[in-house]
Every structure is written in structure tokens, then in C-alpha cells.
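Chain and backbone:
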Amino acid sequence: MTELATLVSGAQAYRIADIATVAGDELPRLPVILRILLENVLRNGGEDRQAAIDAILGWLAHGCSEREIAFQPSRVLMHDTTCGPALVDIAGLRASLAEAGGDPRRLNPVLPVDVSTDHSIGVDVFARPDAVKRNMAHEMKRNGERYRFMKWASAALDNVRIHPPGTGIMHTLNLERLASVVTTFERDGTAWAAPDTLIGTDSHTPMINGIGVLAWGVGGLEAESVMFGMPVTMRVPDVVGVRLIGRLREGVLATDLALTVTERLRRIDLADRFVEFFGPGVSSLSAGERAVVANMTPEFGANSGYFPIDARTLEYLAQTGRSPAQLELIEAYARRQRLWLDPDATPRYTKTVSIDLGEIEISLAGPRRPQDRISADKAADALLPLLASKPDTTTPDCQDPDGPADGAVAIAAITSCTNTSDPRLLIAAGLVARKARRLGLKPPAWVKTSLAPGSPAAERYLQRAGLLPDLEALGFGIVGYGCTTCIGNSGPLAPAMTKAMQDPELAPVAVLSGNRNFPGRVHAQIELAFLASPPLVVAYALAGDARRNILHDPIARNAAGADIRLADIWPTGKEIDEALMLAQNAGDYEDAYGIAEASADWAAFEAPGTALFPWNDASTYIRRPPFAGLGSGTRLGRYQAAPLLVLGDDITTDHISPAGAIAASSEAAEYLVGHGEDAHDLNVFASRRGNWEVMLRGLFTNKSVRNLLGPDLVPGTTIHAGSGECMSLRRAAERYAQEGRSVVIVAGERYGMGSSRDWAAKGVALLGVRAVLALSFERIHRSNLIGMGILPLRLPADRHPRDLDLRPDDSLEIEALAEMVTPRAAINVRILRNGAETDRFVATAAVETNLECEILRVGGLLPLILRNAMPRSGIER
């Protein structure tokens, strides 16, 4: 059997790993995702190559497998607040390697690493013409030290490319510019072609799956191992097929589809599973619409949400400036390898779900979780039970002259890669703004409005369509190119809202076109938030409150006093298509990115030119991390541990390690002010991830966190066993360490859902936690815990933390010796109260591969990376 073949595209011949020949008649039955994994195994080889091929083809027998394969992506994608900690880790590892007598330059990424700078810009200034300029000035001033460090890394390390502030959000940058869909490279003097694959240090990395690139999000720790040449070791994944039929109705947009898919798929256990969309309905969706759905992959709980390549893919690539030669290669390769979408095909899947696009309705999600989709006319019903003043259900007066009432919209933000990467959605928002402007409508003064597209090209196509002035007239001028409000960098509220919130009974609402709405994520003072399409965000801004049926009730009045309803300003599909035709110019993308890359402010930053980073103990941004070394060995063993935290369901990584503004009254602020920082401008936690001292003090301080060890515990605190004192988690952890006592965390369902931030695991490791026991874990956080040497244990379904009734003086005895921890091993746990056993159960090690077991045995990924780079017998490896 010949496993290699030649593909000719244009005048160039390429060698390819011939999956069609290897899989034979079985290939059409394989999900496209597994076809890509099969190609990867064929091309990259390894000792277990044939076993991996057999494992993938053998998957067809049952639609699942317990066998492991090694996946080697072609590149890595990061953003500044995950890359920052990763680069600090690498700098720390280099220092440790030099101290051990090794050459620090041996620690270099072997894969291309692209880094966007998108996660720290805030909406300090809005609704004014110079908003972008002023917000960027704040960005450069606040983060100069961090950016100089990133420039050091790009010079000191091979294969690292930094895209400066202003170049957009990583996922939009990937869609519009970086992704090749089919990549080419040279090996041993021969030209090869292969699928473009990657991993990214952000949970929304699967957005690129909308154009047929297989990718998924990982934590920064796992990305570090891949950078240094370690493969991603994984079980042959379960693949859930989502069959799409029909087409979207008039007025229904990609956001509505994405929220519906999220709602439907969250009902299924998708932990460590991949999702593939198939069926005739896929062909009716543009690549932009597919990308919106794929972006929500972490919200529906899967590893990846994949759409195969087809003519709509090529159409998008042409619109964003890819070359005709590249398009020709993509089509030739995808058809030859059977990666091209066949809308009538029905591959074998682990499980199949069917969704009729014709049944999708205009939707919102919230007011607290992205999977809680509701029809847009039901927002008031979802909101009213949660409002402090419990107003009646009558429709509020349009733009109440007395100011904001309970349920008022404090933030209306067109933000996030999720919905600003699809030009059709921004065009629709612009058309709503145009119609509202012509009617003389404006949002009330208490609404903070903003537009933060994922790409600098967005300004060009909105200008070309003549819609940017209309958006600006309603306060939706561009405030910057970054994640902004979606990750909590929403800046201060409007003065009118700040004043009104002196009334503790007022509960404001945020409406944003983002992907997450956990309490406190968008803004520390906002517990309630709805996810919506960009045009619906504009409508809610005009209404000024969320206590209405947005589809049917009046949202404003014109100058003559006539009621204006959503139908009066909602664009038709024909209007969107016509405006989109005016907007499109393939040359805009390269030009816009080129100007952003040539940032003079970025070029002005100077950085050290040394192989070792010169640490500064006085820095409040970059500190050498204590865990970037060989460590103290494994955290496995047989031990008794005190419960440091006992938590309920849906504890997100936002709850564990916040990203938003650092409150002036916090322990982190006390540390920063004590080190010379301005108490009135402490920046955000996301920008301080290079300083472990700051991050440690921010753990579990989100105001929604409830430590069940005590009814009155303030977030970020616990009760120390023995003394009975209430104290910060940091102080308690220090005292337990001095006493020689182990600690664990106990939690409910979906522990670690949300962002991929590895500090949610690093911080817990610094607290000395040896194990986290939870009813279920979100995938990336589970991996991050293992990366820090912490054992994740799944509790039995009948052992919810609230029913365990754990008390501060109780102990959990865990029997997890290194030789006992294997993938999904049974681990004995006993609960002791006053030295006597009160409960006994068997937990399951949430460990999926043998490599993860090895990582736990050596105490984490960083010690493993360092060991692999250490000199042996005085000779460099």
C-alpha cells in the first residue's frame, strides 16, 4: 500500500500523505475531523505510527475509542495575556537551565508562534471621535513594561512573531490573514502540502474551524510543551455530528444560530468530544456565519466545532485577499483528500443531533450563562425575577426622563471576535443605526455604547458602505480593536449610570455581542447580561432598558412622539446583501493590517537583547515565577488534606482568576500600591499575569464566589482549620504549609468553564492544592490542572459538595499514589470528622492519557520541559 502521493496544483508538485489510499472504502464513513487526524499521523510518523492508524480506522467499529494518538499541529496561536505568562515561564525555565549549567538558548519554540495583542485594551473613552486614539494611548502607557518584555521574547526566541496592539483580535486575525487552510512546507528538499492545523491558547480558537481549519484551544502550559516539540497526546476523539437542514429565515442572523446550537449541545456531555457539522443546511451558511457558530465551541462544551471546506470557504478567502493560486491549491487538495464538503454524505458519528435552520428565531442568551438561550421577546420574563425592586411587568416608558430604573441597560457593546468577524453582522448593525438616525433616535445618557471590531479592516468596509457615520451618531464609534467589554475591559460606566447605582436596589444590565455573560465578567458591578447580535445590541441601546418585549414593544419615540418598534429599523436580508456588496474590497485586509503592523508606538519600545531576561525585583508586571523550575516533585500520594474551598456549580475561570479591573480595595491593590503603583489606575488582572504575587492575591475574589465552608465568608477567604480564623486564601495556604498540612478544593458541576487562562491552575498550585475534586471539569482547565501537577478527581454523581456538608476541621483522605494514577483510574476517598470516618466513596481520576500521568508523576509540565532540556553528564543534549 502506497501511503504517499503527488498532487499537482498550478505548476507545482507537492507530496501528500495519501489518506484516500490508506483508508480505502472506509474513508467516506470517517468524520472529516478523523480524516485530518489520520493525515497528521501518516505524515508525522513516530514509533506508534501504525498503531495510531489502526486506532483511527478502528474507531469506525464503535464510534469511539480508548486508544491514544499523537497530534502535531503546524502552528501555535496565542494572545498577549496567555502568551505573557507562557513567555514568563520560558524566561524562568531559561534562567533555571542556565543555573543548572545548560545553554538557555536551547529552549526555543520549534513551531511558528503568532501572538496577537488584543486582551488588555479597555473602553476608557467612548462615543467621541478620538476614542481609538485615546484608548490606544492608555493601552501603551499602562502596558509598556509588558510589551517591552514581549519584544524581548520575539528577539530572543526563534519562531515567535508578535502582532502589535491595533492589529485586532487573534481569532479574526487568524480568519482574515493567518490561516492558509492548506499549508505548504519543505522537508528534505521536497515540497509538501498538508492541512493547516493549529492549537491556540484561547478557548475560542475553534472559530477558525468555520473555514475548514482544524484547531482547538488549550491552556498556556500545554501550548508551551507543543512549542518545544512535544505532540498533543489524545484519545481518538468521539465525534458528534450535527446535521443541519433548511435555511435561516428572514431576519434571523448567525448569532441566533450560534446561541441555539449552544443551547442544544449543552444538553449533551461533550467533554473531550469534537463536533462536526454536516448536511445540506451547511451549504446555505456563509463562511462568516459558520465561524460565528464555531467560535461558541467552548460555550457548548466541546473541543472543536468543525465545518468542512467547500465553495463558500473559497468565496470567503477570496473576499479577504487570499491569492488565486492558494485557492486553487485548497480546492485541489481538499477534493483529492476527500476533505471537501459533500452535503449529502452521512459519515459515522459517535452521536448525531439534527437542527432545522428554518426553526431558528431571533434570540438572546442570559442573563447569566451563554447556554441559556431565550427568544428575544422573553428577555423581560427571564430578567424580572432577578431584579432587586421587582418592578411590575408593564412596559416601561421609552427612555424614562427620570433616569435609569431597575433593569436599565448600562452597557451596550458591539464587541468580541464572535460576532464582529462576520461582516454581515456589522453591516446589519450599521443599517439599524442608519434607520434609527434618520428617525432622530439616540440612546439615553446612561447607556455606555461601544464598537470594538475584531479587525482593523472593519473600519474600511463600514466606511465603504457608508455606515460608520450612522453608528458614530448613535455612540457606536470604534473604541479600539480588541476584546474590550467581552473580557471585562469595559472601563467605567457612564456618569448617569454611576450616579444611579448609588441606589443599591438598582440592578443594571449589559447587552453585548460577545460569547460569555457570567456574573461580574463584563463589569464588576454588573451581575446580569444578555448576549445578542450586533443589530440587537443597537436596539437595546436605544431602548435603554431590558424590561420589555424588544420584538414588539416600542423601543423609542421619534421627534413627533410616535412609537418606534424594532420592525421599523430592522434591515431586510436584501438590504444587508446590497450594503455588503458596497462594503467588499479584498485589498482592504492586507492594507489595514499592514498599517496596524507598522505602529510607530510599538516600534518605539526598546527591549533587552540578551538570551536571559534581566529580572527586576521591583517590577509589578514581570516577576520570575517560582514554578518555572524542577519543582519539589509530585503532588500525588496518600495523604489527608484540609478543604481550602468548597464551591458550588459553574465556577468559571473568571471566578478563579479574574481578568477585569483590579479593585482599589482588594488585597492585590494593597500589594501594588505598596510597590509604588497609582491606586487610581491599577490596570486589569489580565495585564498583571506576569506577576505571580498579584495573581495569587486575586484568586476567587469574584463577588459571585461562595465558599460553602462558612455562610458569611467574603470571596477570596476561607476558615483555617484548628484556629477557626477567617483569613485570605493566601494566608491560609501559607499557614497550612507551615503546619505541614495538605489542602484540596471541592467543587460542583462544570468546574473551570469559560476562558482558557492557565492562571486559574497556576494560582491554585501556588496555594499548595494537591487535588481538585469536582462533579465535572471543563476540558481546558482540567488539562491546566494536570499541567501544574494537580490531580483532578471526578466526584460520584451522588456526592455534590453541598450535600457533603464539609466543615473547616474535616479532612479528606485521598489514596492517589503515583503508581495508582492511570487514565480514568478509581481513587479511594474518605471524609474524616473528628478523626472518624463519616463517608467513603470512589472518585475517578480525570486523566485521559499516559502522558498526563507522566506529567503528574514529575510534578507538572514545566519540570518535564526543563528535564528534557537539561544537560546530562556535562554534555548539552
Residues 80-99 form the longest helix (20 residues). The chain is about 35% helix and 20% strand.
